[in-house]
Amino acid sequence: MRIMWETSDAILTASKTAVKEFVSDGAGFSVHWGLYSLLGRGEWVMHSEHIPVQQYRKLMDSFNPINFNADDWISLIKEAGIKAFMITSKHHDGFCMFDTKLTDYKITNTPFGRDPIKELSNACHRHNVKLHFYYSLLDWYNPDYQVNWERYVEYYQGQIKELCSNYGKLGGILFDGWWPRYQLDKETEYFRPKGKWNLTQTYDLIHSLQPDALITNNHHILPLKGEDYQIFEIDMPGENTTGFNTTEIGDKPIATWITLGKGWSYIKENREFKTLDFLIERMKKCKEKNIFLWINSGPMPDGNLQLEEIEILKNLKHLP
Q: What cellular component GO annotations does this protein have (predicted)?
């Protein structure tokens, strides 16, 4: 049986200059940071441990990353020679790390009270680092995802408009949470989209508001119209050691996305990290094949980057 999934008829794309610069920049630094960081058991903890929505929401009362300093983060990656930065604006748990007007489930309603993405945006622009957003289409919190699909699409597109309008010039947006080849089971059935994402409108909205922003979607299929590069999670392009990547490579620029730590977000009990030698070798392979490399970190709940990851970045700046 042929697998069918949503397509896109988007007309607009990122500017040729922006695409050329993205490929030339070669590497970017991303972070997975949110309420799940408090628990230190991975960004999927709400799902994997069956934590009820209202119980999980109570984490808001404890989220207060008092040691967060946007300039420290961006200065560090700038000194390492990295020219792009990406942060999880909203992960699958639905919690918003920015001051959205469309829900009260956001970081400005925690004891922290500030908008870290606004601060990171300002730091990126000061240091000439391109700002990218990760945004999860999948949402375990918003009830409309399950009961009113049209309203949910309006909600997520409204947030994309906010992200494109309120934080200055963007380098790009990476979507996640829609995997059309993923085989759902009883545990994951509630992930299923209840209709179309309306990607055509979403992609053209982004490119109309941010002509230089590159769009990618971590959907593990070939790029759709309106997507500016193809991304491979963990694997090098064309490989599928994870079991969920496509081995097909399209005609767009390509990127791979790896973690410095054991997982994507902060893991309290597991202190395994990639070695500097591993990272240097991966960067070398990517450079030889003209592949962009996203390097991911899991900041701690207090707002600090992990010392092991800081050390790796500091060593990168000493490379020839």
A: lysosome
